[in-house]
Protein backbone atom coordinates (compact mmCIF):
# COMPACT_ATOMS: atom_id res chain seq x y z
CA UNK A 1 0.00 0.00 0.00
CA UNK A 2 2.86 2.38 0.82
CA UNK A 3 4.40 1.78 -2.59
CA UNK A 4 1.14 2.64 -4.27
CA UNK A 5 0.91 5.94 -2.37
CA UNK A 6 4.52 6.82 -3.18
CA UNK A 7 3.99 6.11 -6.87
CA UNK A 8 0.75 8.10 -6.83
CA UNK A 9 2.47 11.08 -5.18
CA UNK A 10 5.35 10.85 -7.65
CA UNK A 11 2.98 10.91 -10.62
CA UNK A 12 0.99 13.81 -9.17
CA UNK A 13 4.09 15.93 -8.54
CA UNK A 14 3.94 17.99 -11.72
CA UNK A 15 0.21 18.57 -11.28
CA UNK A 16 0.91 20.18 -7.91
CA UNK A 17 3.17 22.85 -9.42
CA UNK A 18 0.29 25.21 -10.17
CA UNK A 19 -0.90 26.42 -6.80
CA UNK A 20 -4.61 26.84 -6.06
CA UNK A 21 -4.19 30.59 -5.55
CA UNK A 22 -2.88 30.90 -9.12
CA UNK A 23 -5.91 29.32 -10.80
CA UNK A 24 -8.15 31.76 -12.63
CA UNK A 25 -11.88 31.70 -11.80
CA UNK A 26 -12.85 31.54 -15.50
CA UNK A 27 -12.22 27.96 -16.77
CA UNK A 28 -11.71 29.18 -20.36
CA UNK A 29 -9.02 31.65 -19.29
CA UNK A 30 -7.40 29.02 -17.08
CA UNK A 31 -7.30 26.59 -20.01
CA UNK A 32 -5.64 29.29 -22.14
CA UNK A 33 -3.12 29.98 -19.39
CA UNK A 34 -2.30 26.28 -19.09
CA UNK A 35 -1.87 25.94 -22.85
CA UNK A 36 0.45 28.95 -23.03
CA UNK A 37 2.51 27.88 -20.04
CA UNK A 38 3.06 24.42 -21.56
CA UNK A 39 5.17 26.09 -24.26
CA UNK A 40 7.21 28.28 -21.91
CA UNK A 41 10.51 27.15 -20.41
CA UNK A 42 11.28 27.49 -16.73
CA UNK A 43 14.43 29.60 -16.68
CA UNK A 44 15.63 27.83 -13.52
CA UNK A 45 14.87 24.21 -14.48
CA UNK A 46 15.63 24.89 -18.17
CA UNK A 47 14.03 21.84 -19.80
CA UNK A 48 10.79 21.89 -17.88
CA UNK A 49 7.78 23.99 -18.71
CA UNK A 50 6.58 26.56 -16.19
CA UNK A 51 3.38 24.62 -15.59
CA UNK A 52 5.32 21.64 -14.16
CA UNK A 53 8.04 23.55 -12.32
CA UNK A 54 8.00 24.32 -8.61
CA UNK A 55 10.63 27.09 -8.91
CA UNK A 56 9.64 30.51 -7.65
CA UNK A 57 10.51 32.10 -11.00
CA UNK A 58 8.17 29.65 -12.73
CA UNK A 59 5.43 30.71 -10.32
CA UNK A 60 6.12 34.35 -11.19
CA UNK A 61 5.91 33.53 -14.89
CA UNK A 62 2.64 31.63 -14.40
CA UNK A 63 1.20 34.62 -12.54
CA UNK A 64 2.44 36.96 -15.26
CA UNK A 65 0.76 34.82 -17.95
CA UNK A 66 -2.51 34.85 -16.02
CA UNK A 67 -2.22 38.60 -15.42
CA UNK A 68 -1.77 39.28 -19.14
CA UNK A 69 -4.72 37.00 -20.00
CA UNK A 70 -7.03 38.77 -17.55
CA UNK A 71 -5.82 42.11 -19.03
CA UNK A 72 -7.27 40.94 -22.36
CA UNK A 73 -4.12 39.99 -24.27
CA UNK A 74 -4.34 37.28 -26.91
CA UNK A 75 -2.19 34.15 -26.65
CA UNK A 76 0.31 35.53 -29.16
CA UNK A 77 0.52 38.84 -27.29
CA UNK A 78 1.21 37.06 -24.00
CA UNK A 79 4.01 35.00 -25.58
CA UNK A 80 5.43 38.06 -27.34
CA UNK A 81 5.42 39.97 -24.05
CA UNK A 82 7.38 37.21 -22.32
CA UNK A 83 9.83 36.88 -25.24
CA UNK A 84 10.42 40.64 -25.19
CA UNK A 85 11.03 40.53 -21.45
CA UNK A 86 13.08 37.30 -21.10
CA UNK A 87 14.36 36.61 -24.60
CA UNK A 88 13.63 33.75 -26.94
CA UNK A 89 15.17 31.27 -24.48
CA UNK A 90 11.86 31.30 -22.60
CA UNK A 91 10.26 29.36 -25.47
CA UNK A 92 10.48 25.56 -25.32
CA UNK A 93 10.21 25.48 -29.13
CA UNK A 94 12.26 28.39 -30.49
CA UNK A 95 11.31 29.94 -33.80
CA UNK A 96 13.17 29.22 -37.01
CA UNK A 97 13.33 32.85 -38.08
CA UNK A 98 16.37 35.11 -38.09
CA UNK A 99 19.66 33.47 -37.21
CA UNK A 100 17.91 30.51 -35.54
CA UNK A 101 17.59 28.81 -38.93
CA UNK A 102 21.36 28.32 -38.82
CA UNK A 103 21.06 26.46 -35.51
CA UNK A 104 18.24 24.29 -36.84
CA UNK A 105 20.13 23.51 -40.05
CA UNK A 106 23.57 23.01 -38.47
CA UNK A 107 22.98 19.39 -37.43
CA UNK A 108 21.83 18.05 -40.80
CA UNK A 109 24.38 20.17 -42.69
CA UNK A 110 27.27 18.94 -40.55
CA UNK A 111 26.05 15.37 -40.95
CA UNK A 112 26.01 15.71 -44.75
CA UNK A 113 29.47 17.31 -44.66
CA UNK A 114 30.82 14.43 -42.53
CA UNK A 115 29.28 11.85 -44.85
CA UNK A 116 30.86 13.55 -47.87
CA UNK A 117 34.23 13.77 -46.13
CA UNK A 118 33.99 10.09 -45.18
CA UNK A 119 33.12 9.16 -48.77
CA UNK A 120 36.12 11.09 -50.12
CA UNK A 121 38.41 9.41 -47.59
CA UNK A 122 37.14 5.90 -48.40
CA UNK A 123 37.40 6.54 -52.14
CA UNK A 124 40.99 7.83 -51.80
CA UNK A 125 41.92 4.78 -49.70
CA UNK A 126 40.49 2.38 -52.27
CA UNK A 127 42.49 4.05 -55.07
CA UNK A 128 45.75 4.00 -53.15
CA UNK A 129 48.31 1.42 -54.20
CA UNK A 130 49.06 -1.37 -51.83
CA UNK A 131 52.46 -0.97 -50.20
CA UNK A 132 55.06 -3.06 -51.95
CA UNK A 133 57.50 -5.16 -50.00
CA UNK A 134 60.95 -3.69 -49.80
CA UNK A 135 63.58 -5.80 -51.57
CA UNK A 136 67.09 -5.76 -50.18
CA UNK A 137 69.94 -4.92 -52.46
CA UNK A 138 72.74 -7.53 -52.86
CA UNK A 139 75.00 -5.50 -50.54
CA UNK A 140 72.26 -5.35 -47.86
CA UNK A 141 71.65 -9.09 -48.16
CA UNK A 142 75.38 -9.80 -47.70
CA UNK A 143 75.53 -7.50 -44.67
CA UNK A 144 72.46 -9.21 -43.16
CA UNK A 145 74.08 -12.67 -43.67
CA UNK A 146 77.23 -11.43 -41.95
CA UNK A 147 75.27 -10.11 -38.98
CA UNK A 148 73.29 -13.34 -38.62
CA UNK A 149 76.46 -15.48 -38.92
CA UNK A 150 78.22 -13.40 -36.23
CA UNK A 151 75.34 -13.98 -33.78
CA UNK A 152 75.58 -17.79 -33.96
Explain what the structure shows.
The protein is mostly helical. The protein has six helices and no strands. It has helices at 2-12, 27-38, 56-70, 75-86, 100-127, 138-150. The longest helix is centred in the last third of the chain and has 28 residues, at 100-127. It is elongated, with a radius of gyration of 33 Å.
Briefly characterize the structure.
It contains 6 helices and no strands.
Mean pLDDT: 83
Portion of residues in beta strands equals under 5%
Helix fraction bin: 55-70%
N-C termini distance: 85 Å
Largest sheet: none
CATH architecture of one domain: Orthogonal Bundle
One letter per element, helices H and strands E, the order comes to HHHHHH
Q: What class, by secondary structure content?
A: mainly alpha
What is the level 1 CATH name of one domain? Mainly Alpha
From the structure above, extract its key features:
152 residues, mainly alpha, Helicase, Ruva Protein, domain 3, 6 helices, 60% helix, elongated, metal ion binding, C-type_cytochrome_biogenesis, signal, cytochrome c-type biogenesis
Question: What's the helix and strand layout?
Answer:
Blueprint lengths: L1 H11 L14 H12 L17 H15 L4 H12 L13 H28 L10 H13 L2
Amino acid sequence: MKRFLVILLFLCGPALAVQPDEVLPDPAQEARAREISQGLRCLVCQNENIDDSNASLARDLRLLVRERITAGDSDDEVVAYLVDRYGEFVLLRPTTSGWNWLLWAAGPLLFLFAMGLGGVYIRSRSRAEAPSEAVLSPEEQARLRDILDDNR
